[in-house]
Specification:
Distance between the termini: 131 Å
Shape: rod-shaped
Number of helices: 2
Order of helices and strands: HH
Strand content: under 5%
Largest sheet: none
Radius of gyration: 38 Å
Structural class: mainly alpha
Oligomer: single chain
Helix content: over 70%
Length: 87
């Protein structure tokens, strides 16, 4: 009986300490999960913005190419008119 009482008290105290030490971990884990979810949402938003910007750049490039082709055609017509003009 003398030996079992300190052992039993040690087990009870150990269980109490383990219970107290684990109480903060779920809160910390939930906070980390929330932060990961928030970062995932931000990454998704940035990816969406990047896709929109890439589309806008492609549209601007297409417009630029069309304007360049039109300018080249206009220059060709001007060159043809100047070469056929005689005095």
């Amino acid at each position: 009986m003398n030996r079992s009482l300190p052992i039993l008290a040690g087990i009870i105290l150990s269980a109490a300490l383990v219970g107290c030490s684990n109480s903060d971990k779920p809160d910390a884990m939930q906070q980390l999960t929330n932060k990961v979810d928030m970062l995932s949402d931000q990454v998704s938003a940035l990816q969406s913005q990047q896709d929109q910007m890439a589309g806008a750049v492609n549209d601007a490039k297409a417009s630029s190419d069309a304007a360049y082709q039109e300018a080249m055609r206009a220059n060709q017509r001007i060159d043809n008119m100047a070469s056929s003009y005689t005095k």
